[in-house]
């Protein structure tokens, strides 16, 4: 351990610091306050919500509440009509759970919409309650992927979701980009990822991860809330291709989203 040094008495050691820029326009949450993150599963499958709650580590200084969509929401979201229905039903449920039916009074500091698509619930929340940050898994995962590596690919469920995923990626990137190698559909269902035959699920995830890595992805995104906790499986699948693939990064959009929202909630850009 280094010994502490006494303060210098020599004026020559005193630095003349430049004026610090005025930061009064940005409000920072107190370090002692806990950020309330609401992880909203917009489908009606409680098994997916339970899997998220069991596998996600809450960022320091935060606490998380996990919410499942109402029974009127689809069991899984596999296409655009399903997204629209789930957004409308879950939005109604969130409003109904707010004091005086006012979403601005909802106890959440931020909302993570736990669906890997350009889910319309995020836009609804941003418009109706701009003071509470909201993101979905796709947006959060892509934001992290762009900093975690050079090229990324998405591992998802059925073929029907691929067009929506690809449209969401293009929207975030502002068009087509060489940094995106594509999306691989495993053919697995959302609920099946957690409750289906383990051998079948692991084989499909392994095959998909290896195809994305072989296509040049050094970052693989888990493109479904039901894939939460599968990072070790994807890493093993890539490492099996050889040492050149052992360092492939694996991103869970739910983890990425929680950390993004924790920062946005603490740094209140709208204050």
UniProtKB/TrEMBL annotation:
InterPro entries: Asp/Glu/hydantoin_racemase, Hydantoin_racemase-like, Iso_Racemase_Enz_sf. Coiled coil: none annotated. Signal peptide: none annotated. Pfam families: Asp_Glu_race. Gene3D superfamilies: 3.40.50.12500. GO terms for molecular function: amino-acid racemase activity. Belongs to the HyuE racemase family. This is Uncharacterized protein. It comes from Pseudozyma antarctica.
């Amino acid at each position: 351990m280094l010994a502490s040094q006494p303060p210098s008495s020599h004026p020559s050691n005193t630095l003349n610091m430049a004026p610090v820029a005025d930061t009064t326009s940005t409000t920072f949450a107190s370090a002692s306050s806990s950020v309330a993150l609401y992880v909203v599963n917009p489908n009606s499958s409680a098994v997916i919500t339970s899997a998220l709650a069991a596998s996600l580590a809450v960022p320091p200084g935060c606490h998380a509440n996990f919410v499942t969509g109402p029974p009127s929401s689809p069991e899984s979201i596999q296409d655009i009509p399903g997204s629209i229905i789930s957004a409308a039903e879950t939005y109604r449920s969130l409003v109904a759970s707010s004091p005086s039916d006012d979403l601005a009074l909802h106890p959440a500091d931020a909302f993570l919409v736990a669906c890997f698509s350009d889910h319309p619930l995020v836009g609804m929340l941003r418009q109706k309650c701009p003071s509470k940050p909201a993101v979905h898994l796709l947006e959060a995962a892509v934001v992290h992927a762009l900093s975690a590596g050079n090229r990324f690919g998405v591992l998802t469920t059925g073929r029907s979701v691929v067009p929506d995923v690809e449209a969401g990626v293009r929207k975030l990137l502002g068009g087509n980009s060489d940094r995106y190698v594509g999306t691989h559909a495993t053919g697995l269902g959302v609920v099946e990822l957690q409750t289906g035959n383990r051998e079948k699920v692991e084989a499909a995830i392994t095959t998909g991860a290896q195809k994305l890595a072989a296509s040049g992805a050094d970052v693989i995104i888990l493109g479904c809330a039901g894939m939460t906790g599968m990072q070790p499986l994807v890493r093993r699948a890539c490492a099996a291709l050889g040492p050149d693939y052992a360092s492939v990064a694996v991103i869970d959009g739910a983890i990425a989203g929680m950390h993004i929202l924790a920062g946005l909630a603490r740094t209140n850009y709208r204050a």
